[in-house]
Specification:
single chain, 166 residues, mainly alpha, Arc Repressor Mutant, subunit A, 3-stranded antiparallel beta sheet, 6 helices, 3 strands, 64% helix, 7% strand, globular
Length: 166
């Protein structure tokens, strides 16, 4: 029987380390983000449209956790800024989809590239053993995160849990 206190301690250490890494990634992108002349809502909307592709205003609102009318106003502002266009849905001509413009795609790519450069330089500084451990850890986390039910609450692996390699 695994030591639950040791497991909880490891979980807390992992959570703390992940939080600190994500904060460092966000800090590394800070200057670029601060130079943008966008509200947080506009930035998040661009992120959703560039990440998930064209989508109805209602879906954009659901992803952002805002009402459809608020999402519509947000989409209108993005259109005004040249970061989005509204086009008829070819599958259902009663709906319009919010599409990212090339300017929005370029902005998202530039932000991603800056983040990726920082992370790549950090990974390059790790030893082979650290990279192997990190890779195994991420693969295990993905195994749990990609479960169909997406609910890992209460799941505590045993000492015999195998994490696929490769």
């Amino acid at each position: 029987m695994p030591d639950s206190h040791a497991h909880e301690r490891l979980m807390a250490q992992c959570h703390d380390a992940a939080h600190r890494v994500f904060a460092a990634v966000n800090r590394s992108a800070g200057p670029e983000l601060l130079s943008l002349d966008l509200t947080m809502g506009q930035f998040k909307a661009i992120a959703m449209v560039t990440m998930y592709g064209p989508q109805p205003v209602g879906e954009l609102g659901r992803r952002l956790g805002i009402s459809e009318s608020a999402a519509s106003l947000l989409a209108d502002k993005l259109v005004e800024l040249g970061l989005a266009v509204r086009q008829r849905d070819p599958q259902d001509h009663r709906r319009t989809l919010v599409h990212a413009t090339p300017a929005a795609e370029e902005l998202a790519a530039r932000l991603r590239q800056g983040r990726e450069e920082h992370v790549t330089s950090w990974l390059a500084a790790l030893t082979a053993g650290e990279l192997e451990g990190l890779t195994r850890g991420f693969q295990g986390l993905l195994r749990v995160a990609e479960r169909p039910d997406q609910s890992a609450a209460g799941v505590v692996p045993t000492a015999t849990t195998e994490v696929p390699r490769g």
